[in-house]
Amino acid sequence: MFAKNVYVQRRKRLRDQVQSALILFLGNDDSPMNYPDNQYPFRQDSSFLYFFGLDCPGLAAVIDIDQGKEYVFGDDLTVDDIIWMGPQPALQEKCQQVGIYETASLDKVQVVLRKAAEQGRKVHFLPQYRPENILRIEQLLGIHPSVVQDNVSETLIKAVVAQRSFKTHEEIEQIEAALDISYEMQTTAMKMSKPGVCEMEVAGAMEGIAVSRGGRLSFPTIFSVHGETLHNHYYGNVMKEGDIAVNDSGAESALHYASDITRTIPVSGKFSQRQKEIYTIVLDAQEKAIEAVKPGVEFRRVHRLACTILASGLKELGLMKGNVEEAVDAGAHTLFFQCGLGHMLGLDVHDMEGLGEDYVGYTDTIKRNPEFGWRSLRLGKALEPGFVITVEPGLYFIPELIDRWKAEQRHAQYINYGVVEEYRDFGGIRLEDDVLVTDNGNTVLGKRIPKTIDEVEAMSSLDLP
Questions:
Q1: Quick check: 437 and 350 in contact, CB under 8 A?
Q2: pLDDT above 90 for 49
Q3: Is position 465 within any domain?
Q4: Nearest to 319 by CA among 288, 361, 277, 286
Q5: Helix (H) or strand (E) holding 396
Q6: In sequence order, what are the beta bridge partners of 122?
Q7: Where are the alpha helices (DSSP H) in 46-90?
Q8: What contacts 289, CB < 8 A, 6 or more positions away?
Q9: Which of 103, 93, 157, 170 is nearest to 125 (CA)?
Q10: Do 204 and 255 lie in a common domain?
Q11: Which residues contact 257 (CB under 8 A, 6 or more apart)?
Protein backbone atom coordinates (compact mmCIF):
# COMPACT_ATOMS: atom_id res chain seq x y z
CA MET A 1 0.00 0.00 0.00
CA PHE A 2 0.94 3.65 -0.31
CA ALA A 3 1.75 5.87 2.68
CA LYS A 4 -1.09 6.43 5.15
CA ASN A 5 -1.54 10.07 4.20
CA VAL A 6 -2.32 9.14 0.58
CA TYR A 7 -5.49 7.33 1.62
CA VAL A 8 -6.40 9.90 4.26
CA GLN A 9 -6.25 12.71 1.67
CA ARG A 10 -8.16 10.70 -0.94
CA ARG A 11 -11.02 10.14 1.49
CA LYS A 12 -10.98 13.77 2.58
CA ARG A 13 -11.32 14.93 -1.01
CA LEU A 14 -14.18 12.48 -1.50
CA ARG A 15 -15.98 13.79 1.60
CA ASP A 16 -15.55 17.34 0.33
CA GLN A 17 -17.05 16.43 -3.04
CA VAL A 18 -20.02 14.39 -1.78
CA GLN A 19 -20.59 16.71 1.22
CA SER A 20 -23.38 14.90 3.11
CA ALA A 21 -24.88 11.53 4.07
CA LEU A 22 -23.05 8.18 4.15
CA ILE A 23 -20.89 6.44 1.57
CA LEU A 24 -20.85 2.65 1.44
CA PHE A 25 -17.96 0.77 -0.17
CA LEU A 26 -18.16 -3.00 -0.52
CA GLY A 27 -14.88 -4.87 -0.89
CA ASN A 28 -14.76 -8.07 -2.90
CA ASP A 29 -14.87 -11.57 -1.45
CA ASP A 30 -13.16 -14.76 -2.55
CA SER A 31 -15.00 -16.32 -5.47
CA PRO A 32 -15.05 -20.11 -6.03
CA MET A 33 -14.23 -21.61 -9.42
CA ASN A 34 -16.08 -24.92 -9.09
CA TYR A 35 -16.42 -25.62 -5.36
CA PRO A 36 -16.03 -23.42 -2.27
CA ASP A 37 -12.42 -24.16 -1.37
CA ASN A 38 -11.10 -23.87 -4.95
CA GLN A 39 -11.11 -20.13 -5.52
CA TYR A 40 -10.11 -17.72 -8.22
CA PRO A 41 -7.13 -15.53 -7.27
CA PHE A 42 -8.49 -12.75 -5.10
CA ARG A 43 -8.77 -9.28 -6.64
CA GLN A 44 -9.97 -6.39 -4.52
CA ASP A 45 -12.43 -3.87 -5.89
CA SER A 46 -10.41 -1.03 -7.42
CA SER A 47 -12.31 1.84 -5.79
CA PHE A 48 -12.04 0.11 -2.42
CA LEU A 49 -8.29 -0.21 -3.01
CA TYR A 50 -8.04 3.42 -4.08
CA PHE A 51 -9.65 4.85 -0.95
CA PHE A 52 -8.77 2.24 1.67
CA GLY A 53 -5.71 0.33 0.39
CA LEU A 54 -6.76 -2.92 2.07
CA ASP A 55 -6.09 -5.85 -0.25
CA CYS A 56 -7.95 -8.68 1.45
CA PRO A 57 -11.43 -10.21 1.18
CA GLY A 58 -14.43 -9.84 3.47
CA LEU A 59 -14.45 -6.09 4.07
CA ALA A 60 -16.90 -3.23 3.88
CA ALA A 61 -16.39 0.43 4.66
CA VAL A 62 -18.61 3.37 5.53
CA ILE A 63 -17.73 7.05 5.44
CA ASP A 64 -20.17 9.05 7.56
CA ILE A 65 -19.64 12.54 6.21
CA ASP A 66 -22.00 14.30 8.60
CA GLN A 67 -20.49 12.68 11.70
CA GLY A 68 -16.91 12.90 10.40
CA LYS A 69 -16.32 9.18 10.95
CA GLU A 70 -14.82 6.42 8.83
CA TYR A 71 -15.39 2.74 9.55
CA VAL A 72 -14.04 -0.51 8.18
CA PHE A 73 -15.94 -3.70 8.93
CA GLY A 74 -14.45 -7.19 8.76
CA ASP A 75 -13.69 -10.29 10.76
CA ASP A 76 -10.28 -11.35 12.00
CA LEU A 77 -9.10 -14.86 11.15
CA THR A 78 -10.02 -17.71 13.44
CA VAL A 79 -7.52 -20.37 14.51
CA ASP A 80 -9.05 -22.67 11.90
CA ASP A 81 -8.42 -20.02 9.24
CA ILE A 82 -4.82 -19.58 10.39
CA ILE A 83 -4.18 -23.32 10.02
CA TRP A 84 -4.86 -23.06 6.29
CA MET A 85 -3.74 -19.50 5.56
CA GLY A 86 -1.15 -18.63 8.20
CA PRO A 87 -1.22 -15.73 10.65
CA GLN A 88 -2.39 -12.33 9.44
CA PRO A 89 -2.30 -8.89 11.07
CA ALA A 90 -5.47 -7.98 12.94
CA LEU A 91 -7.98 -5.83 11.08
CA GLN A 92 -7.41 -2.92 13.44
CA GLU A 93 -3.68 -3.02 12.78
CA LYS A 94 -4.16 -3.06 9.01
CA CYS A 95 -6.68 -0.24 9.16
CA GLN A 96 -4.38 1.99 11.16
CA GLN A 97 -1.89 1.78 8.31
CA VAL A 98 -4.38 3.60 6.09
CA GLY A 99 -5.63 6.05 8.72
CA ILE A 100 -8.81 4.23 9.80
CA TYR A 101 -9.34 3.94 13.56
CA GLU A 102 -12.96 2.77 13.79
CA THR A 103 -13.27 -0.98 13.10
CA ALA A 104 -15.92 -3.58 13.86
CA SER A 105 -17.00 -7.06 12.84
CA LEU A 106 -18.62 -7.41 9.43
CA ASP A 107 -22.13 -7.92 10.78
CA LYS A 108 -22.03 -4.48 12.41
CA VAL A 109 -22.21 -2.66 9.07
CA GLN A 110 -25.89 -3.51 8.94
CA VAL A 111 -26.42 -1.86 12.31
CA VAL A 112 -24.84 1.40 11.12
CA LEU A 113 -26.83 1.43 7.89
CA ARG A 114 -30.15 0.60 9.56
CA LYS A 115 -29.67 3.45 11.99
CA ALA A 116 -29.00 5.79 9.07
CA ALA A 117 -32.15 4.53 7.32
CA GLU A 118 -34.23 5.15 10.45
CA GLN A 119 -32.95 8.71 10.47
CA GLY A 120 -33.86 9.12 6.80
CA ARG A 121 -30.25 9.64 5.77
CA LYS A 122 -29.08 8.86 2.23
CA VAL A 123 -26.50 6.12 1.57
CA HIS A 124 -24.38 6.57 -1.53
CA PHE A 125 -22.96 3.50 -3.27
CA LEU A 126 -21.27 2.72 -6.61
CA PRO A 127 -22.45 0.38 -9.39
CA GLN A 128 -21.95 -3.27 -8.48
CA TYR A 129 -20.50 -5.79 -10.93
CA ARG A 130 -20.40 -8.93 -8.74
CA PRO A 131 -23.70 -10.75 -8.08
CA GLU A 132 -22.84 -11.41 -4.44
CA ASN A 133 -22.41 -7.70 -3.77
CA ILE A 134 -25.73 -6.93 -5.45
CA LEU A 135 -27.29 -9.37 -2.98
CA ARG A 136 -25.42 -7.70 -0.12
CA ILE A 137 -26.92 -4.36 -1.14
CA GLU A 138 -30.35 -5.94 -0.86
CA GLN A 139 -29.50 -7.27 2.61
CA LEU A 140 -27.99 -4.02 3.83
CA LEU A 141 -30.27 -1.44 2.22
CA GLY A 142 -33.41 -3.37 1.34
CA ILE A 143 -33.11 -2.66 -2.38
CA HIS A 144 -34.29 -5.48 -4.65
CA PRO A 145 -31.45 -6.90 -6.81
CA SER A 146 -33.33 -6.06 -10.00
CA VAL A 147 -33.14 -2.34 -9.24
CA VAL A 148 -29.84 -2.04 -7.37
CA GLN A 149 -28.12 -0.48 -10.40
CA ASP A 150 -31.00 2.02 -10.70
CA ASN A 151 -30.21 3.28 -7.20
CA VAL A 152 -26.48 3.91 -7.49
CA SER A 153 -25.28 7.40 -6.66
CA GLU A 154 -24.41 9.55 -9.65
CA THR A 155 -22.92 12.07 -7.23
CA LEU A 156 -20.54 9.43 -5.89
CA ILE A 157 -19.68 8.09 -9.35
CA LYS A 158 -18.71 11.55 -10.56
CA ALA A 159 -16.70 12.24 -7.40
CA VAL A 160 -14.75 8.97 -7.71
CA VAL A 161 -14.11 9.49 -11.43
CA ALA A 162 -12.92 13.03 -10.73
CA GLN A 163 -10.23 11.68 -8.40
CA ARG A 164 -9.19 8.45 -10.07
CA SER A 165 -8.80 10.06 -13.51
CA PHE A 166 -5.74 12.02 -12.41
CA LYS A 167 -2.70 9.91 -11.64
CA THR A 168 -0.22 11.03 -9.00
CA HIS A 169 3.53 10.49 -9.09
CA GLU A 170 3.13 7.40 -6.90
CA GLU A 171 0.55 5.96 -9.27
CA ILE A 172 2.70 6.63 -12.33
CA GLU A 173 5.54 4.75 -10.64
CA GLN A 174 3.21 1.76 -10.23
CA ILE A 175 2.16 1.88 -13.89
CA GLU A 176 5.83 2.06 -14.85
CA ALA A 177 6.48 -1.02 -12.69
CA ALA A 178 3.75 -2.85 -14.58
CA LEU A 179 5.30 -1.70 -17.85
CA ASP A 180 8.67 -3.13 -16.81
CA ILE A 181 6.90 -6.50 -16.70
CA SER A 182 5.25 -5.79 -20.06
CA TYR A 183 8.67 -5.19 -21.61
CA GLU A 184 9.79 -8.67 -20.59
CA MET A 185 6.50 -10.20 -21.71
CA GLN A 186 6.57 -8.57 -25.12
CA THR A 187 10.24 -9.15 -25.93
CA THR A 188 9.99 -12.77 -24.77
CA ALA A 189 7.00 -13.26 -27.07
CA MET A 190 8.96 -11.84 -30.00
CA LYS A 191 11.82 -14.26 -29.38
CA MET A 192 9.52 -17.26 -28.90
CA SER A 193 7.25 -16.71 -31.89
CA LYS A 194 8.71 -19.14 -34.41
CA PRO A 195 7.19 -21.52 -36.96
CA GLY A 196 6.04 -24.69 -35.22
CA VAL A 197 5.47 -23.03 -31.82
CA CYS A 198 1.94 -23.14 -30.40
CA GLU A 199 0.37 -19.87 -29.29
CA MET A 200 -0.35 -21.30 -25.85
CA GLU A 201 3.37 -21.75 -25.19
CA VAL A 202 3.92 -18.02 -25.69
CA ALA A 203 0.82 -16.99 -23.74
CA GLY A 204 1.87 -19.27 -20.88
CA ALA A 205 5.41 -17.92 -20.82
CA MET A 206 4.13 -14.35 -20.60
CA GLU A 207 1.81 -15.14 -17.71
CA GLY A 208 4.70 -16.85 -15.96
CA ILE A 209 6.78 -13.69 -16.30
CA ALA A 210 4.02 -11.61 -14.70
CA VAL A 211 3.69 -14.00 -11.77
CA SER A 212 7.46 -14.33 -11.32
CA ARG A 213 7.75 -10.54 -11.06
CA GLY A 214 5.27 -10.38 -8.19
CA GLY A 215 2.33 -9.33 -10.33
CA ARG A 216 -0.38 -10.95 -12.42
CA LEU A 217 -2.03 -10.39 -15.76
CA SER A 218 -4.10 -7.19 -15.90
CA PHE A 219 -6.48 -8.94 -18.33
CA PRO A 220 -6.56 -12.28 -20.18
CA THR A 221 -3.81 -12.18 -22.80
CA ILE A 222 -4.74 -11.72 -26.44
CA PHE A 223 -2.10 -13.60 -28.43
CA SER A 224 -3.12 -14.97 -31.79
CA VAL A 225 -2.24 -15.31 -35.45
CA HIS A 226 -5.90 -14.41 -35.97
CA GLY A 227 -5.45 -10.82 -34.90
CA GLU A 228 -8.52 -9.82 -36.88
CA THR A 229 -10.52 -11.06 -33.88
CA LEU A 230 -10.13 -8.05 -31.62
CA HIS A 231 -10.24 -9.89 -28.27
CA ASN A 232 -9.04 -13.35 -29.26
CA HIS A 233 -8.41 -15.55 -26.20
CA TYR A 234 -7.90 -18.82 -28.10
CA TYR A 235 -4.29 -20.02 -28.00
CA GLY A 236 -4.54 -23.32 -29.88
CA ASN A 237 -2.99 -22.38 -33.23
CA VAL A 238 0.44 -23.62 -34.23
CA MET A 239 2.30 -20.67 -35.75
CA LYS A 240 3.69 -21.12 -39.24
CA GLU A 241 5.94 -19.34 -41.73
CA GLY A 242 4.37 -16.12 -42.96
CA ASP A 243 2.02 -15.63 -39.98
CA ILE A 244 1.82 -12.47 -37.94
CA ALA A 245 0.74 -12.64 -34.30
CA VAL A 246 -1.01 -9.86 -32.40
CA ASN A 247 0.19 -9.70 -28.78
CA ASP A 248 -2.10 -7.53 -26.67
CA SER A 249 -1.12 -8.19 -23.07
CA GLY A 250 -0.55 -6.47 -19.77
CA ALA A 251 0.50 -6.94 -16.19
CA GLU A 252 -0.47 -5.57 -12.80
CA SER A 253 2.05 -4.10 -10.40
CA ALA A 254 2.18 -5.24 -6.78
CA LEU A 255 -0.39 -2.53 -5.96
CA HIS A 256 -2.59 -3.58 -8.91
CA TYR A 257 -1.91 -0.77 -11.37
CA ALA A 258 -2.13 -1.99 -14.95
CA SER A 259 -0.13 -1.92 -18.15
CA ASP A 260 -1.61 -2.58 -21.59
CA ILE A 261 0.70 -2.99 -24.58
CA THR A 262 0.17 -4.37 -28.08
CA ARG A 263 2.75 -5.37 -30.65
CA THR A 264 2.42 -7.37 -33.86
CA ILE A 265 5.08 -10.01 -34.45
CA PRO A 266 6.30 -11.64 -37.71
CA VAL A 267 6.48 -15.35 -36.90
CA SER A 268 9.16 -16.01 -39.49
CA GLY A 269 11.26 -13.12 -38.16
CA LYS A 270 10.57 -10.91 -41.17
CA PHE A 271 7.44 -9.19 -42.40
CA SER A 272 6.36 -9.84 -45.97
CA GLN A 273 6.10 -6.83 -48.27
CA ARG A 274 2.31 -6.76 -47.89
CA GLN A 275 2.59 -7.02 -44.11
CA LYS A 276 5.13 -4.19 -44.09
CA GLU A 277 2.75 -1.97 -46.05
CA ILE A 278 -0.15 -2.47 -43.64
CA TYR A 279 2.13 -2.28 -40.59
CA THR A 280 3.57 1.03 -41.81
CA ILE A 281 0.08 2.53 -42.06
CA VAL A 282 -0.78 1.49 -38.51
CA LEU A 283 2.55 2.70 -37.13
CA ASP A 284 2.12 6.07 -38.85
CA ALA A 285 -1.38 6.42 -37.41
CA GLN A 286 -0.18 5.55 -33.93
CA GLU A 287 2.80 7.90 -33.95
CA LYS A 288 0.76 10.83 -35.25
CA ALA A 289 -2.03 10.12 -32.79
CA ILE A 290 0.44 10.12 -29.90
CA GLU A 291 1.88 13.41 -31.15
CA ALA A 292 -1.63 14.89 -31.01
CA VAL A 293 -2.14 13.91 -27.36
CA LYS A 294 -1.98 17.07 -25.26
CA PRO A 295 -4.10 18.94 -22.70
CA GLY A 296 -7.32 20.41 -24.05
CA VAL A 297 -7.51 18.14 -27.09
CA GLU A 298 -10.67 16.05 -27.30
CA PHE A 299 -9.66 12.42 -27.66
CA ARG A 300 -12.45 11.84 -30.17
CA ARG A 301 -10.53 14.25 -32.43
CA VAL A 302 -7.38 12.18 -31.97
CA HIS A 303 -9.41 9.09 -32.85
CA ARG A 304 -10.64 10.76 -36.03
CA LEU A 305 -7.11 11.78 -36.94
CA ALA A 306 -6.00 8.17 -36.66
CA CYS A 307 -8.96 7.03 -38.76
CA THR A 308 -8.06 9.52 -41.48
CA ILE A 309 -4.44 8.38 -41.55
CA LEU A 310 -5.50 4.73 -41.73
CA ALA A 311 -7.94 5.47 -44.55
CA SER A 312 -5.33 7.50 -46.46
CA GLY A 313 -2.86 4.62 -46.25
CA LEU A 314 -5.49 2.15 -47.42
CA LYS A 315 -6.33 4.42 -50.34
CA GLU A 316 -2.68 4.47 -51.39
CA LEU A 317 -2.74 0.66 -51.46
CA GLY A 318 -5.95 0.66 -53.48
CA LEU A 319 -8.25 -0.78 -50.82
CA MET A 320 -10.16 2.49 -50.43
CA LYS A 321 -10.97 5.24 -52.91
CA GLY A 322 -12.59 8.63 -53.17
CA ASN A 323 -12.31 11.56 -50.79
CA VAL A 324 -10.73 10.34 -47.56
CA GLU A 325 -12.40 12.89 -45.30
CA GLU A 326 -15.81 12.07 -46.75
CA ALA A 327 -15.10 8.35 -46.41
CA VAL A 328 -14.28 8.75 -42.72
CA ASP A 329 -17.34 10.93 -42.16
CA ALA A 330 -19.44 8.17 -43.74
CA GLY A 331 -17.78 5.48 -41.59
CA ALA A 332 -16.34 3.53 -44.53
CA HIS A 333 -13.05 3.06 -42.70
CA THR A 334 -14.78 1.00 -40.02
CA LEU A 335 -14.66 -2.03 -42.31
CA PHE A 336 -10.98 -2.07 -41.31
CA PHE A 337 -10.96 -0.27 -37.93
CA GLN A 338 -13.99 -1.32 -35.92
CA CYS A 339 -12.98 -0.19 -32.42
CA GLY A 340 -11.88 2.88 -30.50
CA LEU A 341 -8.39 4.36 -30.42
CA GLY A 342 -7.89 3.97 -26.67
CA HIS A 343 -9.11 4.23 -23.10
CA MET A 344 -8.10 5.39 -19.64
CA LEU A 345 -5.61 3.22 -17.73
CA GLY A 346 -4.98 2.87 -14.00
CA LEU A 347 -6.13 0.44 -11.34
CA ASP A 348 -8.29 -1.10 -14.06
CA VAL A 349 -6.98 -1.83 -17.53
CA HIS A 350 -10.13 -0.10 -18.81
CA ASP A 351 -9.96 2.32 -15.93
CA MET A 352 -13.20 2.75 -14.00
CA GLU A 353 -15.24 1.00 -16.68
CA GLY A 354 -17.30 -0.57 -13.91
CA LEU A 355 -18.50 2.92 -12.92
CA GLY A 356 -19.87 3.56 -16.42
CA GLU A 357 -17.83 4.45 -19.50
CA ASP A 358 -19.93 7.50 -20.26
CA TYR A 359 -19.00 8.97 -16.87
CA VAL A 360 -15.31 8.21 -17.43
CA GLY A 361 -14.84 9.02 -21.10
CA TYR A 362 -17.56 11.54 -21.91
CA THR A 363 -19.25 14.62 -20.45
CA ASP A 364 -22.65 16.29 -20.42
CA THR A 365 -21.73 18.02 -23.70
CA ILE A 366 -19.39 15.48 -25.34
CA LYS A 367 -21.55 12.46 -26.04
CA ARG A 368 -20.75 9.02 -27.42
CA ASN A 369 -21.31 8.62 -31.17
CA PRO A 370 -23.69 5.66 -31.59
CA GLU A 371 -22.46 4.73 -35.07
CA PHE A 372 -20.59 1.47 -35.75
CA GLY A 373 -16.89 1.79 -34.90
CA TRP A 374 -17.36 5.13 -33.18
CA ARG A 375 -19.59 3.69 -30.46
CA SER A 376 -16.67 1.52 -29.30
CA LEU A 377 -14.57 4.59 -28.48
CA ARG A 378 -14.30 4.48 -24.68
CA LEU A 379 -12.77 7.96 -24.34
CA GLY A 380 -13.96 11.02 -26.21
CA LYS A 381 -13.61 13.99 -23.85
CA ALA A 382 -10.85 16.58 -23.66
CA LEU A 383 -7.56 15.34 -22.23
CA GLU A 384 -6.09 16.78 -19.04
CA PRO A 385 -2.66 16.58 -17.39
CA GLY A 386 -2.49 13.46 -15.24
CA PHE A 387 -4.62 11.26 -17.49
CA VAL A 388 -2.98 7.99 -18.51
CA ILE A 389 -4.45 6.63 -21.72
CA THR A 390 -3.75 3.98 -24.33
CA VAL A 391 -3.28 4.79 -28.02
CA GLU A 392 -3.95 1.68 -30.11
CA PRO A 393 -4.92 1.97 -33.77
CA GLY A 394 -5.18 -1.14 -35.89
CA LEU A 395 -6.28 -2.57 -39.21
CA TYR A 396 -8.34 -5.74 -39.20
CA PHE A 397 -9.55 -7.84 -42.12
CA ILE A 398 -12.57 -9.77 -40.83
CA PRO A 399 -13.86 -12.14 -43.57
CA GLU A 400 -17.41 -12.28 -42.19
CA LEU A 401 -17.65 -8.47 -42.04
CA ILE A 402 -16.16 -8.13 -45.53
CA ASP A 403 -18.72 -10.61 -46.88
CA ARG A 404 -21.64 -8.75 -45.29
CA TRP A 405 -20.57 -5.31 -46.46
CA LYS A 406 -19.71 -6.57 -49.94
CA ALA A 407 -23.10 -8.26 -50.31
CA GLU A 408 -24.78 -4.99 -49.31
CA GLN A 409 -22.32 -2.94 -51.38
CA ARG A 410 -22.02 -0.76 -48.31
CA HIS A 411 -19.87 2.33 -48.93
CA ALA A 412 -18.99 0.98 -52.39
CA GLN A 413 -18.07 4.52 -53.46
CA TYR A 414 -15.19 4.41 -50.95
CA ILE A 415 -14.19 0.73 -50.83
CA ASN A 416 -12.57 -1.33 -53.60
CA TYR A 417 -14.06 -4.69 -52.73
CA GLY A 418 -12.10 -6.45 -55.46
CA VAL A 419 -8.81 -5.40 -53.84
CA VAL A 420 -10.14 -6.06 -50.34
CA GLU A 421 -10.82 -9.69 -51.34
CA GLU A 422 -7.09 -10.14 -51.86
CA TYR A 423 -6.57 -9.30 -48.15
CA ARG A 424 -9.41 -11.32 -46.61
CA ASP A 425 -6.97 -13.79 -45.06
CA PHE A 426 -4.48 -11.13 -43.94
CA GLY A 427 -5.44 -11.12 -40.23
CA GLY A 428 -4.88 -7.97 -38.22
CA ILE A 429 -2.26 -5.54 -36.99
CA ARG A 430 -2.48 -3.44 -33.80
CA LEU A 431 0.07 -1.26 -32.01
CA GLU A 432 -0.51 0.14 -28.53
CA ASP A 433 1.37 2.19 -25.97
CA ASP A 434 0.48 3.75 -22.61
CA VAL A 435 0.68 7.54 -22.63
CA LEU A 436 0.70 10.11 -19.81
CA VAL A 437 -0.82 13.51 -20.61
CA THR A 438 1.56 16.16 -19.26
CA ASP A 439 1.25 19.91 -18.80
CA ASN A 440 2.78 20.57 -22.22
CA GLY A 441 2.11 17.40 -24.18
CA ASN A 442 2.64 13.77 -23.38
CA THR A 443 5.11 11.10 -22.33
CA VAL A 444 5.06 7.52 -23.55
CA LEU A 445 5.48 5.52 -20.37
CA GLY A 446 7.78 2.57 -19.85
CA LYS A 447 10.97 1.33 -21.43
CA ARG A 448 10.72 1.40 -25.22
CA ILE A 449 9.43 -1.90 -26.52
CA PRO A 450 10.51 -2.66 -30.11
CA LYS A 451 7.95 -1.14 -32.46
CA THR A 452 9.42 -0.06 -35.78
CA ILE A 453 9.72 -2.76 -38.44
CA ASP A 454 13.50 -2.91 -38.04
CA GLU A 455 13.26 -3.09 -34.23
CA VAL A 456 10.63 -5.83 -34.23
CA GLU A 457 12.43 -7.90 -36.86
CA ALA A 458 15.72 -7.58 -34.96
CA MET A 459 14.15 -8.76 -31.69
CA SER A 460 12.16 -11.51 -33.45
CA SER A 461 15.34 -12.91 -34.97
CA LEU A 462 16.77 -13.60 -31.50
CA ASP A 463 16.27 -16.79 -29.50
CA LEU A 464 15.69 -17.10 -25.79
CA PRO A 465 18.90 -17.71 -23.82
A1: no
A2: yes
A3: no
A4: 277
A5: strand 394-396
A6: none
A7: 46-52, 79-85
A8: 302, 303, 305, 306, 309, 341, 391, 393
A9: 157
A10: yes
A11: 171, 174, 175, 177, 178, 346, 347
Rounded distance between C-alpha atoms, residue 379 and residue 190, angstroms: 30
Q: How many CB atoms lie within 10 A of CB 39?
A: 14
- Residue 29 to residue 57: CA distance in whole angstroms: 5
Q: How does residue 19 score in pLDDT terms, banded at 50, 70 and 90?
A: confident
Regarding whether 174 and 160 lie in a shared domain, the answer is: no
Output the CA–CA distances (angstroms, integers) from residue 421 to 9, 243, 273, 411, 415, in the order listed.
58, 18, 17, 15, 11
Domain that holds residue 295: 169-460
Q: Where among 135, 164, 193 does a domain terminate?
A: 164
User: What are the pLDDT digits (tens) for 433-447?
Assistant: 999 999 999 999 999
Mean local confidence (pLDDT), 93-106: 96
β-partners of residue 386 are: none
Whole-number Å distance between alpha carbons of 281 and 279:
5
Helices (H), 53-107: 79-85, 91-96
Contact of 53 with 97, CB cutoff 8 Å: yes
54 falls within a domain: yes
Q: Give me the amino acid identity at 67.
A: Q
The H or E element containing residue 135 is helix 131-141
Residue-level pLDDT at 85: 85
Please say which residue of 164, 190, 215 terminates a domain: 164
Task: Identify whether residues 140 and 241 lie together within a single domain.
Answer: no
Are both 149 and 173 inside the same structural domain?
no
Tell me, what's the pLDDT at 50?
98
20 pLDDT above the threshold of 90: no
Are 247 and 223 spatial neighbours (Cβ–Cβ below 8 Å)?
A: yes
Q: Does one domain contain both 413 and 267? A: yes
